Amino acid sequence: MMTVRDIAGALRADVEGDASLPIRRVAKIEEAESADITFVANPKYLKYLDATRAGAVIIGRKISASSRPDGRNPVYLRVDDPYASFLKVLTLFQPPEDPLPPGIHPSALVDPSATLGSDVRIGALAVVGERCTIGDGSVIMQGVVVGRGVTVGRRTLLHPNVTIRDGCAIGSRVVIHAGTVIGSDGFGFAPLPDGTYEKIPQLGIVAIGDDVEIGANCAIDRATMGETRIERGAKLDNLIQIAHNVVVGENTVMAGQSGVSGSTKIGKRNMIGGQVGFAGHLEIADDSKWAAQSGVHKSALQPGGSYFGTPARGFREASKIHGAMAQLPDALNTIRQLTAEIAQLRKEIEALKAQP
Predict the structure, then answer these.
(1) Model-level pTM?
(2) Separation in Å, CA 89 to CA 4, 20, 52, 201
(3) pLDDT tens column, 96-111
(4) Closest CA to 41 of 61, 66, 13
(5) For residue 55, which of 14, 18, 12 has the smallest C-alpha distance?
(6) Which residues are the active-site residues?
(7) How much is the pLDDT for 322?
(8) Peptide bond preceding 74: is omega within 30 degrees of 0, i.e. cis?
């Protein structure tokens, strides 16, 4: 069991209170007990600070923490970034385990022409195809299929049942979660005069940059020609569809059930909420923000914009429209009432005209 002093040393935190207090576990601030450590980073959780039963709380250096009337204040660990510090504490209490033991499982199938770096680990029933290159320290877990000619960088982790199709390139320190398919065929079919469709060959690849993380059950299609690219540092949630020839820019984050249609290029550091849909052949500027369920039908070329709605509009315009829509039922009742009054007035006018 660690003490507050141990944790403060790892975080370079200033301690207010008993540094010898033993800490048993990490907990949420509203659920923590006397031997637990928690944190406050979001201002909306400050309301819990005066009532929490936590033994220790990680807080910012400038947050005001008043003394309680009963004198039962938690120990405060003051840091520059409470959230980042809390993540570090999580790993202190539960260090990551090796996902696989060293070596190659006897049931794995590794083609003799594949090149494996040092300390590559391959799980049961995994397949590594012809002419593949797997970098030092990478982990290929159970049931993964790595197609012909695939390159995988150093210290990359492919979770169970990931499929990397032929020719694709995966960078270093990439994490791809279970069930995701990299390099599935793009959705390309040419209509024929008889009403049927002929498949367009999908001859490109998917290229994934360093430090990318991709969630479970995503589909990232290979390019028709050239590359579909997920650039360095991008983070994709579960259940995301990326179509052929799409570019997702560096350090862009995308929440679950979003989809990007073919040949759309998303800039760097975009923040994309859940169930956002992008039409094809769009250009999206750097540092754009997209609220959940936005439907993006045209390019956004101005960096730093915030958007929501379907069709997606600038935040201020969309807010006005959203507010106006909420008033539509009352407005409709008013219109109906005025229409009825106008009709009555017309009857009265016609009746006056008819008098001798």
Answers:
(1) 0.85
(2) 11, 17, 19, 50
(3) 888 899 999 999 999 9
(4) 61
(5) 18
(6) 244
(7) 81
(8) no
